[in-house]
Amino acid sequence: MSLLTPDGGLVFWMLLAFGIVFFILAKFAWPVITGAAEKRTNFINNSMESAKEANRKLADIKTEADGIIAEAYEQRTQIMKETAESRDKIISDAKDKASSEARKIIEDANVQIERQKQEVMDSYRREVSEAAVQIAEKILRRELAKDGEQIALINSMLDELNKQQ
To answer: Domain locations in the chain?
Structure first.
């Protein structure tokens, strides 16, 4: 028996064993293996479809998020603009109010200064008038110390009054 040329009986029993193993494998193992392979293939295909769907949803969500971010940015810009305008208006109103109140305070102060100035002038006039009367009284007492001079002064004053009428 040579190794390269098999004997006829050996070939028969080998073919018979191969056929039985092939039949058993074909009947029981291959359907399970091919079923498992098909399940695996279907699972992979479904997973790929799910992944593609998830990628599409993710892209949609990303697009939506970008839109929301852009809208939020626009709203933020608008709010900042409105805030700046409001701030400027408040500052302007405050300046106007402060200017108005400052003018009013200055006017009130000027009125009060004028009033005090008038009071001082009136007081000064009274004092000057009183001093002038006191001086005139002292001069007249000295000048009119004699009765004859008093009568002459009274007569001259009466004459002046009669001339004016």
So the answer is: 9-118
